[in-house]
Amino acid sequence: MENINKDIASARRTLAAEIEVLQIMSDGLGNDFITALDVMENIKGRIIVTGMGKSGHIGKKMAATLASTGSPSFFVHPGEASHGDLGMITKDDVVLAISNGGESTELSDILLYCKRYGITLIAMTRNPDSTLGKAGDYIFKLPDNGEACPLGLAPTSSTTATLALGDAIAIALLERKGFSKEDYKQRHPGGKLGAILQKVSDLMHVGNDLPFVKIGTSMQEAIIIMTEKSLGCVGVVDNTGSLIGVITDGDLRRHMGENFMSAKVEDIMTENPKTIQPNVLAAEALALMNDKKITSLFVEKDKVPVGLLHLHDCLRAGVA
């Protein structure tokens, strides 16, 4: 129990220190923050994030968050930059270099490159008087109140502050640009991709939901079945259970007349309707429906109808 209490006390001290650093940083935001945001919002190119060690790890996440929220960005490792990746940085870009102390020697080639070619450099550091701070055209100031680590060595509070400041930058830019949910979806197609990879069998109606009538059935009865199943069509099967035709809402309108209700389904149906296999991708089924200008497809397996896929099923599942 004593060890547990010590562990909880230690964790709380760490969290308290990191909460404190976030509050200090929040209170210290001012015109420098706004000016640097102005630059990042209006560049023609991309935001190139760089940093070494723990700052580099945070920088990778920062670049990913910026890119996914409407600000094109990627991470360049300082070591790789010195061996050719400097060529990834153009005059239209802005470089966001991260170093808590501001004296990471690995950043020197990137700093020189920015100065040589007039590339805007934004420094993110706690020390404006450091090499990085002095090289920067603009500064995002990090708090200077030590680490949560009791040794004062392991990056803890400083990396928390850097990560949080990166999020604050990304969200501020997002709001400035009017970035919408639809914009976000376009940059995160994972869920949509999952929907597109669904098969017909994942979405189709089966069993008692299916609207079927046998050949020889009156249209009056067929309309009752169509109404009950609410899928906008009814399939016509022969005595062996094979699908031989389909009647849609459009067919009803085209054939409406004096003797319509007493007509047989085979007199109204469209013969040899388009069908699809259950193992076909839902996206392919949707493309077929769009191409044929129809709203539903009966699903067949071994020439036996086993399901029905409606256009609305695809749309609800995000297949588009």
Give the terminus-to-terminus CA distance: 57 Å
**Number of structurally distinct domains:** 2
Q: Measured on Cα atoms, how large is the radius of gyration?
A: 32 Å
- Tell me what the CATH architecture of the largest domain is: 3-Layer(aba) Sandwich
Order of helices and strands: HHEHEHEHEHEHHHHEHEEHHEEHEEH
Q: Main sheet? A: 5 strands, parallel
Poorly predicted runs = none
Q: What structural class do helix, strand and pairing data support?
A: alpha/beta
Describe this protein with a few key phrases.
320 residues; alpha/beta; Rossmann fold; CBS-domain; 2 domains; 5-stranded parallel sheet; 4-stranded mixed sheet; elongated
State the gist of this model:
By secondary structure, this protein is of the alpha/beta class.
Care to describe what's here?
The chain has 320 residues and is an alpha/beta fold. 47% of the residues lie in helices and 17% in strands. It has 2 domains: 2-188, Glucose-6-phosphate isomerase like protein, domain 1 (Rossmann fold, 3-Layer(aba) Sandwich), CATH 3.40.50.10490; 200-316, CBS-domain. The chain has helices at 2-28, 31-42, 54-68, 78-81, 108-117, 131-135, 157-176, 181-187, 190-196, 200-203, 219-229, 249-255, 265-268, 282-292, 311-316, and strands at 47-51, 73-75, 94-98, 120-125, 138-141, 212-214, 233-237, 243-248, 270-271, 275-276, 296-301, 304-310. Helix 3 links the parallel strand 1 (47-51) and strand 2. Helix 1 crosses helix 7. It is elongated.
